[in-house]
Design goal:
homotetramer, about 140 residues, alpha+beta, 5-stranded antiparallel sheet, two-stranded antiparallel ribbon, 3 helices, globular
Chain lengths: ~140, ~140, ~140, ~140
């Protein structure tokens, strides 16, 4: 089982810096775009968490830059959900240049669960546990 | 009377584009930085409005680009409050390169007053009327 | 004749501010996205100008904010080329919320032509004159 | 010996998201601001590298989010240079809220050296080796 989604991002003129390469901070946005798309596809949007009384703040974000991208490049941003035991949400990512499949970046993000006023939750929120069970069973079929 | 404030902004590496000039959209942030500094100086912060039950959404923003700035340039962003009659908040701005006083940009912003749920206010909120009176009297001294 | 293009933009979570509305500066990016799409559609990309020895820096940008948009909203950004006589490039824009066609923003941008080292061009670059003629004739058919 | 620099950053209104906390991607900019300040203090600016025929692209960036910051918070961003043997540039960072010294974020960045056209350099550029020697000797005094 691999829950994943891939989005296409076109590098904007304003996202490259004076050496004509994407400014390294902008990839963080592309990863969030992929997370949002993943959420839409699998019913795990931010709003879904919010309505269930929790937030999923970023806890750890690790980016490894392999090659640079430039304005106009089409990037394929792939996000994959990682099955883990603790009360956290982990995604892995890789970004490839569409035209030649060249690897641009890999990344991993860890998010925690908190209540709406920011208190850390030591267990996954029930709706997320159910979501997880459903997908794990789906995969066994 | 001229209520005004000037801030210094250093152009960041990430704010210039591939032709090594500040990307034109980034000036909007510099203007907001100046508004925040003006608010701190004269007691007119966003929070002040908020605590008085109102928001001041942008309604009209007009930027005139005169010269370009590049990474590392120190810019002096001057904001001046405009005395007007209607229920709106108007500021004028000019941005100059500090080293040679060269004019980079002029701008004008118009903000309206709304309630916290976004309903337009046809009169200035009372605390702002008082603020205005106080400064107009101050200026007469 | 109306040369125009419309793109769809989905408001990102990171583009809204603490009152859950799109931060007003972010619309400048949406307008640039529309200009890039217009350029791709009609053969008027930045690169095209660059290869012909010129840049088209922003000279005047005027935004009128009508309504706010929030995270997740799909916006239709329409850009229309304006036929003008002088050596400048003018576009008009309107942004509507897709779901109910509500008008969110209107804008107008004026760009000038400069050489690659920033010297103002008093006449349109020849390739742009040809582009203009071609489209004007196209429209007469 | 610890070569370090600390800058103060005031969280902007536009940098917080709809839950009123700094959007996690914005910290990447604060870290770059600190690197630029470090460069100015110790003579290691991007321009210095550029004039010596090299670039220092980001290779690995690891952020650990401890607490959230909100609009108006003053953050102290501390950057420390790490002495390493290979041909890379490593910095460690911590960000603290000024008012109570609360830890907000820690991070580490690894940059590599490339020629101006992006070819990886397996040895540090000579001017950087000299820079390193000078500071190591300075520290022995």
């Amino acid at each position: 089982m691999a829950l994943s989604e891939t989005i296409k991002v076109r590098v904007r003129f304003s996202e490259v810096d004076s050496i004509k390469m994407v400014w390294h901070g902008n990839y963080v946005q592309y990863l969030e775009d992929a997370r949002e798309a993943f959420g839409s596809k699998y019913g795990l949007e931010y709003m879904r968490f919010y309505e269930n009384g929790c937030l999923v703040p970023m806890y750890d974000l690790h980016l490894k830059y392999v090659k640079s991208a430039k304005a106009g490049d089409i990037l394929a941003v792939k996000i994959t959900w990682e099955k883990v035991y603790g009360a956290k949400l982990i995604f892995k990512y890789d970004i490839r240049r569409e035209i030649d499949n060249e690897l641009i970046l890999t990344a991993e993000s860890v998010q925690l669960f908190t209540s709406l006023d920011g208190e850390l939750m030591l267990l996954c929120p029930p709706f997320y546990e159910e979501w997880k069970q459903r997908w794990i069973e789906e995969a066994r079929k």
